[in-house]
Amino acid sequence: MKRLLLSVLLLSASPALADTADGSMLIGKPWAEIEKMAKGGTVNWFMWGGSDTINAYVGDRIGGMLKDSHGITVNRVGITDAAEIVNLVLGEKEAGVMDRGSVDMIWINGENFRSMKQAGLAFCGYVETLPNNALINWDDPAVANDFGVPVEGCEVPWNKAQFAFAHDSATLPEPPRSIPALLDWIKANPGQFTYPAPPDFHGSVFVRHVFYHAAGGAENLLGPFDQAKFDDVAPKAWAILNEIEPYLWREGTTYPNTIAQLQQMFANKEVALVFDYDASQFGLAVDNGTYPATVRSYGLEDGTIGNTNYVLIPFNSPNKAAAMVVANALIAGEEQLAKADPAIWGAAPAIDVTRASTEVQAGFAALPMHPSVIPATELAKASLPELQADWITAIEQGWIENVGK
């Protein structure tokens, strides 16, 4: 998913909905009453705006559905980094804006969620009030914990994502399928690989794969940040990354700044490999003519990192009822199915499909598989956990200081 694949749902303040700013009154309230309170509201949805497909899905499908069903206007607001919105909410709290905030919901996960939860910026406890919460398997640790931080009713899962690579099978029939093999391949094929410079979300997750390799496996890094472990592993990781640097695109003298830049380089055949947190993006790029039809995506034999991403309502949203209605709509079985359709988006569902209606289950079973997209079930066979946010911050800063410079 994306670094921000991180985003925000906002609801504009209006006198008719001002009373919903008091979130406590909404928890456990009959859903029909919440829907009545939400009617006619405006939802400004701040979210990562780097995908035309996702933007269209949110703006047209979700926006149109909620306009018809509840008179809610969904105003998608594209952002590049959810951390900016976290800082906005924090600034409002410090300024005493406790019930007229500008943000009503955020597409979010990882360190940004950790920051909001620790700073008391999240509206919590409402999730069980949503009717469609029955479709969420909170017994799944990958859902109940966001990058190792317990969700505890403070956000609603929207998608699952797992890192994947892609290659053009016409020019590279057999790509490297493990981190050790990739490191060897990079040195044997100078100029054919690079990655965005951290803290770019995708560049950061690539570096974490190398960090896992240097640590002898992700299991050696799980749990709260451990400075001693970091100090032991980090020099090995920086040595690996510095060793391959001269063999990268432009001899490692510069790195792409964003995943979009790397995608364009792959499309232009400047590099032979590309990667993404959402494998469906490879199929969409083929369908819109950006990538050739011979592109194929794949996971690694030693695993790729996966996670869940969520939507969160800030503590000072003035329109929490309408935000709850939007969040509930996002996890409806029918919407999770539509979103999973490669022709619409191709995102992996956050719900437990076995809890959905028989019609929705049949729909998932009948979904067409794009030839360029590795099935999520196949990727999941070798899934690696995310680290807690303090680890990620330290790794990103360490890369900047020891590799990027």
Protein model, in words:
The chain has 405 residues and is α+β, with helices and mostly antiparallel strands. The chain folds into two domains: 8-160 and 307-370, 3-Layer(aba) Sandwich (D-Maltodextrin-Binding Protein, domain 2), CATH 3.40.190; 162-306 and 381-404, Periplasmic binding protein-like II (D-Maltodextrin-Binding Protein, domain 2), CATH 3.40.190. Helix content is 39%, strand content 14%. It contains 15 helices and 13 strands. It has helices at 31-38, 52-70, 82-94, 111-118, 141-144, 179-188, 201-215, 227-244, 259-267, 280-287, 320-330, 333-340, 358-365, 376-379, 389-404; strands at 8-11, 42-48, 73-79, 106-108, 145-146, 149-150, 156-162, 164-168, 273-276, 295-298, 304-312, 348-349, 383-384. Strands 4, 7, 11, 12 and 13 form a five-stranded mixed sheet that branches. Strand 5 (145-146) and strand 6 (149-150) form a beta hairpin. Helix 7 packs across helix 15. The longest helix is centred in the first third of the chain and has 19 residues, at 52-70. The model is unreliable at 1-19 (pLDDT under 50).
Strand content: 5-15%
Low-confidence stretches: 1-19
* CATH domain class name of the largest domain: Alpha Beta
Number of strands: 13
**Helical proportion?**
25-40%
Shape: globular
Whole-number total of structural domains: 2
Q: Which sequence of SSEs, written as H and E, runs from N to C?
A: EHEHEHEHHEEEEHHHHEHEEHHEHHEH
Q: Whole-Å distance between the termini? A: 27 Å
User: Helical segment tally?
Assistant: 15
Average pLDDT value?
A: 91
Annotated CATH architecture of the largest domain: 3-Layer(aba) Sandwich
What gyration radius follows from the Cα positions, in whole Å? Answer: 21 Å
Q: How would you sum up the major sheet?
A: 5 strands, mixed
Structural class: alpha+beta
The CATH topology of the largest domain comes to: D-Maltodextrin-Binding Protein, domain 2
What's the CATH H-level superfamily name of the largest domain? Periplasmic binding protein-like II
